[in-house]
Amino acid sequence: MDRITAIINASLELLEPPVRLSSADWSEQNITLTSSVSSRTGRLRLYPWQRAACDFADSPDVSSLVLMWPSQALGKTLVLQSILGHSIVQNPAPSLILQPTVDMSESFAKTKFFPVINATPELKGLIKLEADNRLQGQGANSVLTTRFPGGFCVIGSAGSEASLRSFSCKLLLFDEVSLYDPSAGTGGDPITLALRRSETFADSKSIYASTPAINPGCRISMEYEDSSKHRWTCTCPNCALPWVFAWADVRWDKSVGKDGKTVHEVRGTWMQCPHCQSRYNDKARVQMALSGSFVAERPEITHKIGLHASALITPLPARKGFGGSKMAEFADEFLKSSKRGSFYMRGFKNTILAEAYEVEEEKDIPIETLLNRRETYPTFEETGEPILHERAGLITAAIDIQQSRLEMEIVAHGANNETWGLLYHVERGNPDLPATWENLKQLLLKQYRHPSGRLLTVYLVFVDCAYKPDAAYRFARRGGLYNVMCTRGTSGYAPAGQMSVSKSVGNNERMLLIRVDGVKNSLYDLLQVEQPGSGYQHFPLNHELGYDEYYFSTLLSEKVKLNASGRPTWVKKASQSRNEGWDLRVYNMAACEFANPNWAAVEKTHAQAVANPWNEPKGGTVREYTIKAPAPNAPISLLDMPKPQPRRQPKSGFVSSLFEN
Ligand SMILES: [Zn+2]
């Protein structure tokens, strides 16, 4: 080819329309990652599973794509961003990104959508944020719209009908679908509502992406079950057989320590081929993962492609302390989670293995089990008041308002969910009268003595304001205690890895919302821990502390049922009229979760005794205390228990003796 022809060809290329690129190629050539979006910065490089997902999304045969992926480890959000960015530039259409809540849609816009647009010149030139981007009326502030030539993109919330009613969409991106509420306001299933919006487009596409949650009822698992069921499949270099990495393939050595306990040597964790038993280190694991591909269990389904992958294929680096091995980090997390109970195992299964956590309808815990295992707390001979356990480091309280009484429980918490019930108290009286609250206030001001010589006070009080919110607010704001929060329980589960407690709508500083179902699962598991230590729930036999048969009947008052939409939820047992003991304990657990103590620091502090034990503040005198050794626990049969009595106000002598020092 001579020089002139070359110049002519080059000029002609300039006249041709832009080459149509695949989503994967377009995003690698155009998207630049900033530190606010991704831990990897610079020009986007897709992992092979991300590229495969983009290619499926491009295919004209595919109308639905389901990504059942772990959180963060594989870059699920980048796939959505690539598909959306590519569509805006090369195939513009009305599009919808649906997030579970208003907060999450705002956060998605702020931290994931606009940073990528700002860092991608080709997108930035096209996008125009609507000047008036808020819909008024019901669901106000819940819809954010951006426009571009040939289409628009709405970032909405699955909880709001307004996001789902007013426009037609061709591209639907359902993000974190496992967290969607069963109904968008009163409008019904949010996904059904959104899909109805796409019916006018014959070539509409829906992309579902989520970490799984609780089963039955986990939306992403249901969509995946309905799909081609592709799994990321590697090949064992030794036996050349296909291998879908499973948790059972992650192995480590165990030995017996000096104290007879099992020692897990997680730093030497390896992957073991299930066919030929070859062992692979972490580097070899990443190499196998990067050369894998999606293989379908049901290849005959071509319109709905489901892609599952677990974090076991992640190439992300390990956290410090695991010798650079991500597998060692996972093994460590697995051991910690299994020790802490099902709530944490749920997090492990959801966020690392990308599997739903199966909740079964639970068997009852017999009330005798808990009654019989109560223990006598050591007390001070002088005052009769109980002394804290050395592992107790944080004290919380919860108050429940009823028509003619207030119920309160004070609980001491230690590391790994070990707790000690300190007081269960019923205050009779009209909750609208400040006098009814006064006694509780005195109990909440009590100082508890820790064996290290420190005085501990109640750190945080949660008041359930479902009934008589005015009385709860009054106590929180003007009760004279600074650490009182109003709380409202709502059914449902917090996203795996996130707190059950969140600020409620309206940003009221003293009002918190608790998603109780996860806390309740956790509590139910903890009540079944049989050995003192990690996870154990201690209850006192000291009768003035109030943990009697009536208390335990209200503690064991709920059970798991599947609700109308098939989700496991906690309900009162049919035989049970009162559930305050259970609610109070759930609120105390949530309070500890919210306080989020640094247990390592607490334990370190408490390991050092103070010079003047239990020295009263304000220069009070140091006084001598003698700890009365508790009598050994004799087994108690129900026959020996006093008959349940109608609840009476405790004798005033008890209260004053507890607090006079
Ligand atoms: Zn093999």
Give the secondary structure arrangement, pairings included:
Elements: H1 3-15, H2 23-30, E1 32-33, E2 42-43, H3 48-58, E3 64-68, H4 76-90, E4 95-99, H5 102-118, H6 121-124, E5 128-129, E6 144-148, E7 151-157, H7 162-165, E8 171-175, H8 190-197, E9 205-210, E10 214-215, H9 219-225, E11 230-235, E12 242-243, E13 250-256, E14 262-272, E15 279-280, H10 282-290, E16 293-296, E17 304-308, H11 326-340, H12 342-351, E18 357-358, H13 367-372, E19 379-380, E20 394-401, E21 405-413, E22 419-428, H14 434-444, E23 447-449, E24 455-457, E25 460-464, H15 469-478, E26 484-490, E27 501-503, E28 511-515, H16 516-526, E29 537-538, H17 549-555, E30 558-562, E31 568-572, H18 580-595, H19 599-607, E32 627-628, H20 652-659
Parallel strand pairs: 3-9, 3-17, 4-7, 4-8, 8-9, 10-18, 11-17, 20-25, 22-29, 25-26, 26-28
Antiparallel strand pairs: 1-2, 5-6, 6-7, 11-12, 11-16, 13-14, 14-15, 19-32, 20-21, 21-22, 23-24, 27-28, 30-31
Helix pairs in contact: 2-4, 3-4, 11-12, 16-18, 17-18
The structure holds zinc ion.
